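Figure S4 source data
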Amino acid sequence: MRTPFFLFAVTYMLSLIGSRFVQGHISICFLLMVLGAAVFFVLRSFKGFPWYVCLLGLVFAFGFCYGEVREAQLPENPFSPEQTVTVEGFVVSDPTSTATGLKCILSVTSKDGEPLAESVKIYVLAPRQSNLVYGDEITVTGDFLLSQVANPGGFDYQHYLEERGLYGVLSALYGGSVTKLSAGNGHGLMELAYWLKHRFAAALAYLPPEQRGVIDGIFFGDTSDIDASTSDVLMKSGIYHCFSVSGLHVGYIVLFLSLLCQLMKQGRLQKLLLIAVCLFFYGAMTGFSAPVLRASIMCLMIYGADLFGREKNHFNGLAMASLLILLWSPATLFQVSFQLSFLAMFSILFVMPWLNLLVKKDFYGKDALLVTVAAQIGMTPLLAYYFHIISIVTLLVSTVSCLIVGLW
């Protein structure tokens, strides 16, 4: 069996789905885990019985139990809708501009002067003049907002926040206040990453807002400065993924670094270290999104296998990246970005060999075209389900746009 990790990853995902939709008591989950282990050790003693079938059962039992335990460990939401509160905490993300002010993630340590048993994270909407930066300790007074779905099938923003470990939105824009208590409480490497990001933004300050918004979207996935009409065109043409940081962007970075190391005649170890460092900083700049983490782990595994002379198996690399992400945060499985990234990469690995058999004639840009077609085959069902749109010009426009973005 050349792809054991892939089977384990799929089984683990199925178990997390089961734990999400089939709620059970923690004691029952632990019992299931014990039974899974017992079945594994009993069945593996039978001659000729595939050992990995037993192990897959154990993986499913573990995933079901682990998903329930992680759900039970989440602290209760200490806030009520439309409640005016005063909170204290630390800014743990790089504040981004919105049409009305600044938006950042706050790790809340106390509410109305009472320390919380466990810190929780919320979005904070603050006036632009508050000049918040990563690592600031602040006190915020404002209205706590919990989004409700107004229409059947509408976007559930509250569910979107919960999948990312956020408990709601605290707005200090109208009648609220933000007081900075101290600065420089963040991690040094993260501060360096955000400083590099701001230097890049400063270099684009001379450009018109429309062009600056497009460049920010391509490099960092920040589409806040792209107007609604442009966003609608990008969505309907099927190239909005170029403005959502993904494995495509990581691939461009790795390709550039590989060529740079080749020109500088660096060895395999130096190349691996350079790629690892650069991918960390790029991941920090983009908020360590699931697609970037998936692509970064896969790249490091591939170059690590090359360094140690091991066989490269891209399916195992995809599976290992997914397992590491979902072990750290099982709820990531239910994020649209993770699902699109995983299915797109799986489709590329699975469909590309068949497309190469169908299109035997070589021509310039063949690989780019086939990769785009393969990725689109995997993503189309999810795009139709989540965004209710399928573009018939996606294959042509997406191929051209990906080449232009890569050259840029």
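Figure S5 source data
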Amino acid sequence: MKYLDEFSNPELAKRLLDSIHEIATRRWAIMEVCGGQTHTIIRHGIDQLLPDEVEMIHGPGCPVCVTPLEIIDKALAIAAMPGVIFCSFGDMLRVPGSSQDLFRIKSAGGDVRVVYSPLDALTLARENPDKQVVFFGIGFETTAPANAMTVYQAKRLGIGNFSLLVSHVLVPPAIAAIMESPECRVQGFLAAGHVCSVMGTAEYPMLAEKYRVPIVVTGFEPLDILAGIRRTVMQLEAGSHVVENAYPRAVTDQGNEPARAMLRDVFEVTDRTWRGIGMIPRSGWRLSEAYRDFDAEARFNVAGMHTDESSLCRSGEVLQGLIKPHECAAFGKECTPRNPLGATMVSSEGACAAYYLYRRLELTAVSHV
């Protein structure tokens, strides 16, 4: 199939791998920011086909994984309230809060619904004027425009029984936070192509220059990943640190200007807590003053809730690239997809879920025998 088979061509993949083997002369650590890229790398065994000199570090680019525990608990509290229809994408329903998840709220009688677009939630609000309809708006810059448009439409149409529980985060501040960590080993980045398709690449050159790291915007198919790795290794070997766009079929320097204009109108930048990592200054969005009436945290008075992470779960270190998932003592034991301790095990883009799904624990154990 077009855009699937052609970007999974094994002959072309071998050529790219051979080229990476030829050009890598020193040890390099490269972080793929996006969880979708992580799953492609693990599923296809790309990290095991690379030369020993090239190590892939899994980054914090899974939107479900970085949604903080306190936001999950706020969602659970709102969803359990009478008269509320709580709407979410399906990948959030099994993400654990402090003591339960949205599935358990639903089984206890809460009106929790899976939708395929935030506009579906707005339709529900119009159809149920006697209910409060809340949409759980999480994610990076990729999902934010649709959520912004939904709030914009709610205000324009005067739909007052709709609100948004916001937990949007931004990639560039996360890259800066990773690079400023004293334990950082990252020497280059594969940037998330879908984020850049919305936001463009203008925010990345200053990061590449400040931290002297190459940043290559990359897609999600096997050949996309290998081409991005090859370009990054070439820069590292040459001592270069610039931004390259290896995903031109989807990304332009300017990004999607109408989407960016909508984001500027509906949201404003704020400090944001990342699950397992902590607070990163100016790393998220909240509703701007003009749309503050649609803020679910304020509407349902849950803004003051605070929670503590599991002491067993090391997902924060996984998200920062400090450890691989199997290096957590709870991995595959106390923490499994059926009984996850952290979102990195339950999310479809989580690094722990990728290692568990593709049996990487067994492969790793065999390699150390």
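Residues 315-364 form one domain. Residues 363-369 have pLDDT under 50 and may be disordered.
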